[in-house]
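User: Predict the complex.
Assistant: Input components as received:
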Amino acid sequence: MAGTAVRNEIRRLRFERGEMTQQALADACGVTRQTVIALEAGKYAPSLELAFRIAHAFGVRIEEVFQWGVT
Amino acid sequence: MRRRGLFIGLVTIGAVAIWLLLAGPARVLGFDTGNTGVVLLTLVGWCALYLVSRIPDGGLGETMSRGEWRAWLGCAFTLVIGVYSLVHAHAFQGPPLTHNPDANHVGRNVVMMLVSWMIFAQVLEQRWRGAVREDERDREIEARATGWARMTLVVLAIAMAVLLSFTPAERLAWAPPPMIGHLLIVGLIASCVVEYAVTALSYWRDRH
């Protein structure tokens, strides 16, 4: 998996929320910590449902977390 | 230091077990080396599982997902079973299994290893009960690996069909019915190896 065109701000948002741990985010979204690691590294593009869950966990809109990297 | 010593000890015992299974003499001091190899290999697996369970949070156990642990262990186990089956395939060139103690012996060891792996996999599942064990990424990797395994099985089945259909009967003396049955099982094991290997490599590439 070379990477994905979907960019995300998960790492920044975690730190803005009191350095929320990867495990805490994973638990809030019902995924494994390794999936959060893969997301932050840009190695995995989440499903629409997971993207909404992550945005909901941060309390922001989905486009504030994920952006389409190809213009 | 102590953990390093344990690791080296386990690798050494594992290597001896694999040698006994694949290349060692059939019997030493009256002991069946095949059975001894299976027992030693299972022992190494259990000890490795115990050591993994002792890794503190934030160690290797947290870096690798449950699915990746399972895939690497499954890959190693099924690879040993597959190589063992291939190395001892000549035993199936003899008479039918009811009159062929060598083939019976090989078959029994293969079944023992498969049963050991199934018990081992169940224990892994029990150990990780309660945590989020798999999510959509795991299922995506699993689906990709299953596709590769199915493709492997299809290719092997077609190769087998072509071989048996187009080769003159006199050149198929090496493949009596027990051997064909054994090759079909080897094909199944090969598809399992591919499935575990693709799964493990997918996880590994996600981490690097």
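The CA atoms of residues 34 and 66 of chain B lie 31 Å apart.
Let me know if you want any component modeled separately.
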